[in-house]
Amino acid sequence: MSESLSVQGVVGLASAYYGSAVLFAALEVDLFSAIERAGNRVEADDLAARSGLDPRGLRLLLDACVAVGLLLKEGARYANTPAAESALVTGSPSDLTRAVRYNRDVYPAWGKLAELVKSGQPVEAPEIHLGADSGRTRRFVLAMHGRALGIGRVVVPLLDLGGCVRLLDLAGGPGTYAVLMAQANPALACVTVDLPGVAAVAAELVRDAGMSARVTCRAGDYHTDTYEAEAFDAVTIFGALHQESPEMIVSILTRAAAALKPGGRIFILDMMTDASHTWPAFSALFAVNMALTTHHGWVFSDGELHGWLGEAGFEACETCPVPPPMPHWLVSARKPAHLRQ
Hints:
The mean pLDDT is 92. The chain starts with 6 loop residues before the first helix and ends in a 7-residue tail after the last strand. The protein has 2 domains: 7-90, Orthogonal Bundle (Arc Repressor Mutant, subunit A); 113-334, 3-Layer(aba) Sandwich (Rossmann fold), CATH 3.40.50.150. The chain contains 14 helices and 10 strands. It is α/β, with parallel strands linked by helices. It has helices at 7-14, 17-28, 31-37, 44-51, 55-67, 82-87, 97-110, 113-119, 134-155, 176-184, 196-208, 246-259, 281-293, 302-311, and strands spanning 42-43, 71-74, 77-80, 166-170, 189-194, 215-219, 232-238, 260-270, 315-321, 329-334. Helix 11 links the parallel strand 5 and strand 6 (215-219). Helix 9 (134-155) packs across helix 11 (196-208). The strands form 2 sheets. Strands 6-5-4-7-8-10-9 form a 7-stranded mixed sheet, sandwiched between helices. It has a 3-stranded antiparallel sheet with strand order 1-3-2.
């Protein structure tokens, strides 16, 4: 459980957003990539001239990045830390810039948290990042792609997909997980389903990965869709159910069960908490993020998910925490071999 804050901790928390703003600004001006292009050892004035930035403003940002641990400074020269070089240089093997930019997009919503508490309603329209704003939707899908690449390399090996030849990936977002699963299982074909604006970007990413023959991106809506009866060996729902009410989750799971062959398995990856809804701390905070940006967003406990899976007709529910630093849990269950929908 989390420890209570000291007075100094309260003061630190009040200004914690300073560091986030520094990171977001640094990505906005592509600072870490610019330092890498300059040989990862550069003076502020030289970097300003190379990048067309104001020398004074850039120096302030550089020093702030050093202060929060994003850059190193030796004399007058600045360099990326190993973490920045790995995760914040565009195109690096562990590039997280797209995922961080999603946090930047929801940054203004967090300033309106009191409005959520007063009204109980999201402070921005969920449709903005789900199709209504094509630019925001594209950034959202690309952010999910970057995040899924990192998470998927850890999670896919945990999935028991032996013998599976057809998989249904609901709310599949950028199609990244489907691509990774198909690459790891040569006999597997995947159908990934998401809203039209999201599915269009996903189809581009799947094509770029050379996997269009085995990963189909279907436009749909898992709130209402029904699927081919008993046509799939496995169903996956990764990082989606935290935006749904309990009643809708049961509906989604029930229709997923109908799509599974008897004995088929379902795998659900998501932020989850313990029964108190306060641990892990990141998941409890992520619940607020979801409530700010969706009508039913929150974070449920794995015990609650086990209960909903039981209501939908599944059995043999298991929880597997994903290895650090991933703040996710993986829940699996099976459709009974004797159950016919």
